[in-house]
UniProtKB/TrEMBL annotation:
This is Uncharacterized protein. It is found in: Nucleus. SUPFAM superfamilies: Glucocorticoid receptor-like (DNA-binding domain). One of its GO terms (molecular function) is zinc ion binding. It comes from Dendroctonus ponderosae (Mountain pine beetle).
Length: 61
């Protein structure tokens, strides 16, 4: 059974995968919801969406 990526919904065939917010991702699909920057070290979440530190703490809401 293939596991689908939470970011792109395509099967994960890579040797490595990430588990973020109890969902499985391709490493390249873990990106900020607002600015689309890759999230390599830390990420923040709100309402099931991933954010970089800058966008998570911005006052744009």
């Amino acid at each position: 059974m293939l596991i689908a990526c939470a970011g792109c919904d395509k099967p994960i065939l890579d040797k490595f995968l990430l588990n973020v917010l109890d969902r499985t991702w391709h490493a390249d699909c873990v990106r900020c919801f607002d600015c689309h920057a890759p999230l390599t070290d830390k990420c923040f979440s709100r309402e099931g969406k991933l954010f970089c530190r800058t966008d998570f703490f911005s006052d744009s809401d």
